[in-house]
Amino acid sequence: MPTVSSVMTKNPVVCTVPGNIESVVKTLTKIGLTGMPVVNGNGKYAGIISRRDIFRNHEETQTAMVMRSPVPVREDEDVAVAARQMVEQGKRHIAVVNGDNKVVGIVTPQNLLKLAQENYGEKKISEVPYDKVIPIWEKTPLKVMFNVMTISSIFVYVVIDEEGKMIGLITDRDIFDKINVRRDVVSSERGMDEDEDPWSWTGMRNFVQYAVQKNMVEIPSTPLSEVMVTEPKVTYRTSKLKDAIQVLLNGNFNQIPVLNANGKPNGMLYDLNIMKLFL
Question: Order of strands, edge to edge, in the sheet holding 255-259?
Fold first, then answer.
């Protein structure tokens, strides 16, 4: 297997401690990231902070209180080490450091999917460990769906009709994209100036959950059937893994539903499931 340095994203954007969450949110939103490494005043690795970490600790204001400090991987280590870290942590962002403990890169499942496709692509989906799928009724209100996601920490569900047939897919992003947030509310809360570049508004949709949990906005009671993805990409138990991976790469997806021969949902294949193959 190749080393981490050959697949990592080099020279990632970082934030520092001490620091405040407002600046982290602003940086993640501006660049379109879901997580980044944290460094201390000496420029050395201190931890990782992600969008999910911020959501789960939305009352905290200091970066040090929200970030996690998992063991990073070294740039000269085998990619299997990074894969193991992702699987054991259940997290998608792993910092990469050099011999001086300075951050030189970051690794996510997306960095390893192409390698997995080359090495394990001929496997059938049924040979890969994937997760159980949780169906949700099409008439479920968005507000209820949000509470289900918050309580379960599962952020993607298949949507079914009364006959149990899969008719769509719903993720937290689908919900947040449908919420209207006034620019003046976001600007004042996030410390964004009115004359800033358009990213500060367009990109803010990635952080609507933050606004919801801060009680800045309220989720409507619209049924899932009006918001769900109606023709999601899917795979089947008998399909080749390489084809499913290509769907994930093309769409920058984290998961794909697995259907059985009758076309009914059988599971959910996450990119983290694929990382287990490296172990």
Answer: 235-236, 255-259, 265-270
The domain defined by 4-107 carries CATH number 3.10.580.10: yes
Residue closest to 253 by CA, chosen among 236, 268, 238: 268
- Rounded to an integer, what distance in angstroms lies between the CA atom of residue 28 and that of residue 42? 22
Residue 162, both tokens? 């009364």
**What is the residue extent of each domain of the chain?**
4-107, 125-176+220-278, 183-213
pLDDT digits (tens, 9 = 90+) for 38-97: 999 899 999 999 877 887 787 788 999 999 999 999 999 999 999 999 999 998 999 999
SS3 letters across 8-30: CEECCCCEECCCEHHHHHHHHHH
- pLDDT single digits (tens) 191-231: 444 444 444 444 555 555 556 655 655 677 889 999 899 99
**Which two tokens mark 181?**
């947030």
* CATH topology assigned to domain 125-176+220-278: CBS-domain (3.10.580)
Three-state DSSP state, 77: coil
Compute φ and ψ for 37, nearest 5 degrees.
-70, 160
Question: How far is CA 54 from its chain centroid?
Answer: 12
* Two structure tokens written together for 164: 């149990």
* 4-107 and 125-176+220-278 in the same fold: yes
What average pLDDT is seen over the chain? 85
Question: Tokens standing for 222?
Answer: 């619209």
Contact 251, 173 (CB under 8 A): no
- Sequence-distant (≥ 6) Cβ neighbours of residue 141 within 8 angstroms: 221, 222, 223, 224
